[in-house]
Amino acid sequence: MEDMLFYDRVQFAFTITFHYIFPQLTMGLSLMIVYFKWKFLRTELVKYNDAAKFFMKIFAINFTMGVVTGIPMEFQFGTNWAKFSELTGSIIGQTLAMEGMFSFFLESSFLALFIFGEKLMGQKLHFLTGVLVFIGSWASGYLILATNAWMQHPVGYEILDNGKFVLTNFSNLFSNPWLLPAFLHNQVASLLTSAVVVASIGAFYLLRNTHLAHGKLFVKTGVVFGFIASVLLAFPTGDWNAKNVAKYQPAAFAAMEGIFHTEEAGAEIVLVGQPNMVEKKLDNKIAVPNVLSFLTYQKWDKQIPGMDQFDESELPDNIPALYYSYHIMVGLGTIFIAILGFSLFFLWRKKLFTLRPLLWVLLCLVPFPYIANLTGWYVAELGRQPYLVYGLLRTSDGISPTVSSGNTLFTLLGFIALYLLLGLLFLLLVGKTIHGGPQPKKH
Amino acid sequence: MELFWYCIIAIVLAVFFVLDGYDFGTGIIHLFYAKKEEDKVVIAKSAGLFWDANEVWLVVAGGMLFMAFPTYYASVFSGFYLPLIMVLWLIIFRAIGLELRGHFKARMWTSIWDKSFGVSSLLLALFFGIALGNIVRGVNLGGVENNSSVYEAHYFFLPLWNSSFSPKGIHPGVIDWFTIVIGLIAVVTLAIHGANWIVLKTNSSINEQLKNVVFNANLMLLGGTIFSLFIWHNINPQPFSNFINYPWLMIFPVIYLLGIIGLFYVKRFKREASAFICSTAVIVGGISSSLASMFPKILPSTNSINESLTIYNTATGEYGLSVALNWVIIGFILVIGYLIVQKRLLSGKIDHMDYGH
What we know:
The complex is a heterodimer of chains A (443) and B (357).
Chain A: H1 2-20, H2 23-43, H3 46-80, H4 82-116, H5 118-121, H6 123-152, E1 157-159, E2 165-167, H7 172-175, H8 179-208, H9 212-248, H10 250-257, E3 269-276, E4 281-288, H11 291-297, H12 319-348, H13 356-364, H14 367-384, E5 387-389, E6 393-394, H15 405-436
Antiparallel strand pairs in A: 1-2, 3-4, 5-6
Helix pairs in contact in A: 1-3, 1-15, 2-3, 2-6, 2-8, 3-4, 3-9, 3-15, 4-6, 6-8, 8-9, 8-13, 8-14, 9-10, 9-12, 10-12, 10-14, 12-14
Chain B: H1 2-33, H2 37-48, H3 51-68, H4 70-79, H5 81-100, H6 107-137, H7 177-201, H8 207-235, H9 241-245, H10 251-263, H11 272-294, E1 297-299, E2 309-310, H12 311-314, H13 318-345
Antiparallel strand pairs in B: 1-2
Helix pairs in contact in B: 1-2, 1-3, 1-6, 1-7, 1-11, 3-4, 5-6, 6-7, 7-8, 7-11, 10-11
């Protein structure tokens, strides 16, 4: 039984991690493509149209990867988490089915038109199809977040005698207090990833001394979008989410902040330190007293319950992983504000395009928003443990009763091999597209 | 309300098999009949432009099944664990085959992705047929051993095959000689459908040859169908009782049969769309006849201890089903709108459309 739970969780974690590399780019990038296309309509400068079409190529590669790695996510609810599906399908099936109906149809229909239809439709309609792709991809994010919000903070349900959750109020799924902050935080984070990708491709061209006009446009747009996104990530969206966790999942809050013991006169904020699960303390801790109480409740001496206040069975089952995920996310978020803020300053002083060290930093920044996005999701998912539906359905009670661990290990190994291949092909194609450059080939 | 959602999901699934079915069929034809590079390019393109929009129907069917019949979704997806995950892998290979071939011109590159597209399309058609065979034949619900259930009554786990490949008895495997026959019928049907699609959407040099292929494959389809009904009659004591009790259900087998008859005229049709409409009738008629023959069961039990899964004992609560009705109607109106826009802009032969890469 323990084995089965372990392999099911590893397989889900692995496949969702790999999957979420792609949508986090496409959601943000679709907005930036709409921006480029809009600028082209306003200014009629052809470099904006080149940018829109160039990033649509990158978008298309990511979209394909997102589709093929996304279908296994929907199916895995049934294959590996059958009990969870049986008990909660009435509710999370709503939002998942709506995602297909309202998002995937829109996205896939109009993506083909955006890619193939520029000459057929004229510029204004082409812009419109771009907007529809953007709406489709954000609708997908919204409905997935609505699904996840219900698992984090269940609302609008009733539990029958046989343990099944049934929906009693549809609109509650969308007025869930967990949903809006999580959605905004997630979308801004996705915008950050795409902005850093745009800026780093621009920096690459400038450093290599090719495609200079486009390179400057990419760096400028990426830095401006990226800086705005990085600030919004911290405040108000990050702050709002942290307060939600403190309010609705206090055990997860204590674990992610690394508070082992309750301090009477206000909680400190931990900057670094390694959780020591044997002695129930942080090793090598650097912390600032009372700041966490202030940030969370705007009161320096507000008491925040530490992990000692909760029963062992209510605490997340992997506290160090949760703690590190959270601190990596927050640490990177702070670094993004600093780097992008510097870049914006030098952009304003008109020195950024020749400041090679900073261009190098922007180029090398590209993996880090991905890491921050993924660790952010780990915080949400590890923090929800040991539950699938917070407080109501334990993770260990959600797995398929008939699938043996040997079968799951077999498919896990298959997914690892297949996704390794997909990852290599993805890098090859994106590399080729970047190498090909944003200017249309002359016939 | 259960009946209503059953019909909606059946329609969505049928649309999936009609639309993505031609992509699978195109892959099968591509694998066996496309020899010249121009033909390979254009045939792959006739599927490559549309596969992702077509696949959405599968995702939507899955989502609706999850929402409306969660017990069924949980039971079937976990019970057919290995074949389902393999279908996911094949879907990935099919997609990357189509998407990657155009990125480099080198022979080694294009030929490996052509094979990836063709072989996985062939296997997907086979697997979907086998899946239909399994659903019709039934499974050992509850995993009954020695007259007692090992699992809860609505769960099961099927091995890929049992020692005798026999569909009889209470311990069938996923692959037996009945489901294999249904799988082969699906391959032939979708190959016909794909060939019709290629003739409709392209000017490939093998269009005339494909009409012969369709004619011959149609003979195999007719033979296979009759053969499968004999086997079916042998396994199941009362296979056609629904059609006898509710004669109007005969409309579904009639649609199937009309499709097959129509396909024999493939070489004389003046409009290229006619043959495609006939193979669409075969797919829709085949799926609806199979479902109608079992109704209201959606997964029969092969043992006498646990009752079959029906639309009534697997559905969710009334409130969820009726509230979802509101958004599904809005959703379908939007989807029809998209299809009209898309049809207007991407209609006709696709040979000279700019592929963008």
